[in-house]
Design goal:
The complex is a heterodimer of chains A (496) and B (610). Chain A is mainly alpha-helical. Chain A has 22 helices and three strands. In chain A, a hairpin with a 2-residue loop joins strand 2 (102-108) and strand 3. In chain B, the strands form five sheets. In chain B, strands 2, 3, 4, 5, 10, 14 and 15 form a seven-stranded mixed beta sheet that branches. Chain B has a five-stranded antiparallel beta sheet with strand order 12-11-19-18-17, with helices on both faces. In chain B, strands 1-8-9 form a three-stranded antiparallel beta sheet. The longest helix of chain B is centred in the N-terminal third of the chain and has 31 residues, at 2-32. At the A-B interface, helix 6, helix 10, helix 12, helix 13 and helix 18 of A face helix 1 and helix 2 of B.
Chain lengths: 496, 610
């Protein structure tokens, strides 16, 4: 039985435990990545591991400090924090030195401060305190998936489908604006990676009904186009099929169906992986798989009565056509146009970048199932992967701890994210729930981009792996982000 | 509200989907495609550094070193670090800037130089001898990006037997393809014993594995040296060559074109194998190899041609010894068989007539052998084609048992087989049965289509010495201290002639040197009974070749020898004195007939280059 007011009992130790585990794994691998036989002392402040250990200590103090305030206090000062950070972001554009093409760091003594890392925290806090005070449920019904059919019907009958009066300024435009402002400022610093992280708030908007399913459909269309161009249509089809399953299993709300979906996606991806990404056999497997999906949709009796069946099937067919169209359209482009698109997508790099990503994959792949062992990574020791203690820390794990290590880290992260969502859904206050989703989504995007980059399924975008990458700013930022939620969560029983 | 709550599942599913995609990608990269990445990582981060083994030495029969190794230096250039005033650098190495640029281009060309990396040392100047290197060593070390790699090169303390010992050269693309042993920096034997015993001489390379960093610098040994191996030196070869005799033979052959082959008849061991003109084997070593090889290969006298095993010439009159033995063995002649010297049949020189069999050998009477071989082939039935064909077959079988017409199987590559004419060949030349005794009689005196190598001539001398058998001539007698055992069936071969039938021939051969009118009388050696036979190998392109074959002493022969000198006329004039000097040198260890020696050394057919 939890008691009000007793922080130690109300704190979610699962989250704290996962956090500490990730930090520990991180600093251990920073030690390996930065290993120098002539000064092998783990806690030597000349070594990165020593500094990171110090920062972990400092972030624990930050965490405890946050826990000692009342959550109402943060709610009250969240606009101030947001305002100050925004001003700082503007200042950085003019003050910062150019480091690796981005002007994102300000020197404070020997410590390099990266305001963008704190902007995530500030934006999440302000956004959740803002959304916590307004109701958006009304707008949601009008943008649910059933309305696509209705809207289509209206369109056919020549009626008005959309009017500007439908837009909810306080419920939609302002929250989106809150997320976009820091994003644009950070783009101004040429720090694309950090700016991209702010797209994570769209998961929050979706959950809270700020944006509807139509928006998601639009987003998916863009994602599909990017996937088609970056990889090939097979991968896009896979994503599409997975999306289909996602949608209809959400309608059915049956656990076994959802499980089936998950395992069929997993099985399919394994087949894809085994037969490489693109072979003719792969195409057959793919079409077979898509057919099974369609048959499942047709055969499920619950769907017969529902309008969604048509929507899903129609949507699937439309999307398939769309992917095919994108590919065809791309192929008739001029070579120089293709080249520009490929550069934007990160498909084409200059030599140093592709060297970097190749070496990253070599390091991870050569780790094998169990890895080469702590401090035994040949690529890590030879400093083959640049930025290995910061953005490419996942390589060290992959090389020295193998698949066992990488999957453990992945599982720890997913466990943390799921725990955050689970806890968020348990919150009585809307603000806490929104904040929980913000935190989970930010971690998710970081994970998606950072790990995706090291295993070559994402373009090279330099953002850190939360809690693990070397660097004080990011660790402090993530810690503040996480502990604020732990604080909110510990006080959820206080809210009636 | 219910609607919005269901959205959490959408988000969870999307996150779950990502998780599965990433997990399966990791599974693919780290488990399924592991080997590919392990290999790629190894190629990048682990450097295999070769340690070249020392090639085996080659010794003569008395343990004297014929081929050994000496240290040479490869000057290596690391392009990414190289900084120098090109002009002065070139001056130091004695090249011009054109050559410098050519070499750099070659180094950077990935087709010629596989695995080129600007961060790794590349060979710029290969195998500089210590004496050249010593002078520029200090100044060379001042250049950035220049390093030195120690190698070994062949060295010949006595510059003799170049063709027999052979030389080593850099391996080519074909060698790399055929034999996985080789790497591009390897050298391999490409002629002579170096080539024939390549597998024994080359040894095994050692490998060291280093972990290197992104900049190509070695950080430590890989897996604590668990994969490292030490180089295994090549095996030493013990040969049957007699260094002093070989050297003496080469001295006698200066300014002449031809060959000397001396064999120990009791064993088949080659004592000396002189190919003239010869060259200093030290020329084909180290950095100057290419230039010198070109010069030697282009020489009009075919300096690189190993005449002793590859030159095919009519044997001339030396085969009269064999014809005599065959005739006696067939019962068609004995020591009293006499024929008149009828110059209408075939040309001859002036001597007494008629002659019996030993005298015919002594005087090398052509009409005698015209008659004798006529008897062998036709059995007196002249004009009977069937008998002639049968006689040809019988004769051919005898001749082939003397080792003619086939390779003897010496341990050198490129040995030629020579030709024993037979009925098929005459059918081919003249048409089936459209030839007769008069067409083929020149085989009686070792001319015409009959051709042999100098090695086969020396082998004939062995057969004579052994009275009817011979041992496969060979040069290497022991490998790595272990004597080779020659117990295969082809090692000792019997001729078809019974040993009792050689005494008559020996008489004739002894008289060649000792009796008045003997064709090599001026070549006799006091105190040593030499049996020999002169020959003149007819040459349609110029002066006849001088041939002499001999063994000595008559009782318990220790040496069998053949000397072949191109365009030197009759056998008695040049080949015989040279052979006798060789025999004297071998049996007495010194030369007492210094006048003859000087005469022979000074007898040159072309002006030898210095």
């Amino acid at each position: 039985m939890k008691q009000r007011g007793n922080i130690a009992l109300n704190v979610d130790w699962v989250i704290i435990g996962l956090y500490l585990a990730l930090c520990l794994i991180g600093v251990l691998n920073i030690y390996a990545a930065d290993f120098n036989p002539s000064s092998a002392d783990f806690f030597d402040m000349g070594n990165r591991s020593g500094k990171q250990a110090l920062w972990i200590g400092a972030s624990l103090i930050i965490g405890i400090t946050i826990m000692s305030f009342d959550s109402k206090f943060f709610r009250a000062i969240s606009p101030v924090i947001y305002g100050v950070i925004s001003l700082l972001l503007v200042a950085v554009i003019f003050l910062a030195r150019d480091v690796k093409g981005a002007r994102a760091w300000i020197d404070i003594g020997s410590f390099k401060l990266q305001p963008a890392e704190f902007a995530k925290f500030a934006t999440a806090l302000f956004l959740s305190s803002y959304l916590g005070n307004i109701t958006t449920d009304k707008k949601v019904d009008e943008s649910s998936i059933e309305d696509i059919g209705k809207g289509l019907n209206r369109f056919i009958k020549g009626k008005k489908v959309f009017s500007f009066s439908d837009i909810d300024v306080y419920g939609q435009l302002l929250p989106i604006g809150i997320a976009l402002l820091p994003m644009i400022l950070i783009l101004g610093q040429d720090d694309t990676g950090s700016a991209l992280v702010f797209t994570s708030f769209f998961f929050v908007f979706y959950r809270e009904g700020v944006i509807g399913r139509i928006f998601i459909v639009g987003l998916m269309a863009i994602v599909l186009a990017i996937i088609t161009l970056m990889y090939d249509k097979h991968v896009a089809f896979t994503a599409l099929g997975a999306l289909g399953i996602l949608v209809y299993s959400s309608f059915i709300k049956k656990t076994n169906m959802a499980l089936f979906s998950i395992f069929s996606v997993l099985g399919f991806l394994l087949l894809l992986a085994i037969f490489q990404w693109s072979t003719s056999l792969n195409t057959y497997i793919l079409w077979g798989w898509i057919s099974i999906n369609i048959i499942i949709v047709i055969l499920i009796p619950e769907l017969w009565k529902r309008i969604e069946r048509g929507v899903i099937l129609g949507g699937l067919v439309l999307a398939l056509g769309y992917v095919g169209f994108i590919e065809k359209a791309y192929n008739i482009l001029q070579p120089h146009q293709k080249e520009r698109i490929e550069i934007i997508l990160g498909k084409r790099h200059d030599k140093t970048v592709s060297f970097q990503t190749d070496q990253s994959l070599n390091a991870i792949g050569s780790g094998g199932f169990t890895g080469k062992g702590f401090l035994e990574g040949t690529h890590t020791k030879g400093k083959w992967v640049p930025e290995q203690s910061t953005d490419y820390i996942f390589c060290t794990i992959g090389e020295e701890w193998g698949f066992v290590g990488t999957s453990l880290v992945l599982i720890l992260f997913i466990a943390l994210i799921l725990r955050l969502i689970q806890k968020a859904e348990m919150q009585r206050s809307k603000m806490s729930r929104v904040y929980g989703y913000c935190v989970a989504s930010i971690f998710f995007i970081h994970l998606l981009i950072n790990i995706g980059m090291t295993i070559q399924i994402m373009p090279v975008i330099g953002i850190p792996l939360p809690f693990m990458s070397y660097g004080g700013s990011s660790l402090f930022g993530f810690t503040a982000l996480l502990f604020m939620f732990v604080k909110f969560d510990s006080q959820r029983l206080d809210i009636l | 509200m219910a609607k919005l709550e269901s959205r959490k599942y959408h988000i969870l599913l999307l996150f779950g989907f990502f998780f599965l995609v990433y997990l399966s990608r990791l599974f693919y990269v780290q488990v399924i495609a592991k080997d590919y990445f392990v290999n790629r990582a190894k190629t990048d981060a682990v450097d295999k550094v070769v340690e070249f083994p020392v090639r085996g030495n080659i010794y003569d029969r008395n343990g004297e070193v014929l081929v050994q190794n000496e240290i040479a230096y490869d000057v290596m250039i690391t392009m990414s670090d190289f900084e120098a005033d090109t002009l002065r650098f070139c001056e130091l190495l004695g090249i011009d800037t054109v050559e410098f640029n050519r070499r750099i281009k070659e180094i950077k060309n990935p087709k010629l130089n596989r695995g080129y990396s600007s961060r790794l040392p590349q060979v710029f100047e290969s195998l500089m001898k210590s004496e050249e290197f010593g002078g520029i060593k200090e100044r060379l070390f001042n250049y950035k990006g220049i390093s030195i790699k120690k190698r070994t090169v062949r060295n010949y303390p006595r510059p003799i037997a170049a063709h027999v010992l052979g030389h080593v050269s850099k391996v080519g693309p074909r060698d790399l393809e055929r034999d996985g042993f080789y790497i591009p920096q390897d050298y391999k034997g490409s002629s002579g014993l170096e080539q024939f015993y390549e597998k024994e001489l080359r040894g095994n390379k050692g490998w060291k594995h280093y972990l290197k960093n992104r900049h190509g610098k070695y950080i430590s040994s890989y897996l604590e040296g668990a994969l490292d191996t030490l180089p295994l030196p090549g095996k030493n070869l013990q040969t049957s060559l007699h260094a002093q005799l070989q050297e003496y033979g080469e001295k006698l052959m200066v300014g002449k074109i031809g060959a000397i082959v001396a064999i120990e008849p009791k064993t088949g061991e080659v004592l000396a194998m002189v190919n003239a003109p010869t060259y200093n084997p030290n020329l084909l070593v180290g950095g100057k190899y290419g230039k010198n090889y070109q010069r030697l290969a282009k020489d009009k006298k075919q300096i690189l041609f190993p005449r002793s095993i590859q030159s095919r010439q009519p044997p001339g009159s030396i085969v009269k010894t064999m014809q005599s033995a065959i005739a006696v063995d067939m019962g068609l002649a004995n020591e009293f068989t006499a024929y008149a010297c009828n110059k209408k049949l075939v040309g001859c020189h002036n001597h007494q007539s008629p002659l019996n069999l030993p005298q015919a050998i002594q005087n090398s009477c052509n009409p005698y052998y015209y008659n004798l071989v006529n008897k062998i082939l036709t059995k007196g039935k002249s004009g009977n084609m069937a008998q002639l064909r049968k006689g040809m077959d019988e004769w051919e079988e005898y001749v082939r048992s003397f080792g003619f017409g086939d390779k003897l199987g010496i341990d050198l590559y490129g040995e030629k087989d020579g030709n024993v004419p037979d009925k098929r060949e005459y059918d081919h030349i003249y048409g089936k049965n459209r030839w007769n005794w008069r067409t083929v009689y020149s085989i009686a005196i070792g001319q015409g289509e009959f051709s042999v190598t100098p090695l086969q001539m020396a082998n004939l001398a062995c057969i004579m010495a052994n009275k009817g058998h011979f041992f496969r001539p060979h040069i290497v007698t022991a490998i790595a201290g272990e004597a080779l055992s020659f117990n295969d069936s082809t090692f000792r071969r019997e001729t078809k002639v019974d040993s009792s039938n050689f005494e008559i021939v020996h008489n004739g051969m002894q008289w060649v040197l000792e009796e008045y009118g003997g064709t090599a009388r001026s070549s006799r050696i006091p105190d040593i009974t030499v049996c020999g036979k002169t020959g003149t190998s007819q040459n349609p392109h110029g002066d006849d070749h001088s041939v002499f074959m001999a063994f000595a002493p008559r009782e318990n022969p220790k040496i069998a020898i053949a000397v072949f000198v191109e365009n030197a006329g009759g056998g008695g004039g040049t080949a015989a004195p040279i052979a006798s000097l060789m025999i004297e040198k071998y049996l007495k260890g010194k030369i007492e007939r210094t006048e003859l020696e000087t005469e022979m050394i000074e007898k040159v057919f072309f002006e030898p280059k210095k």
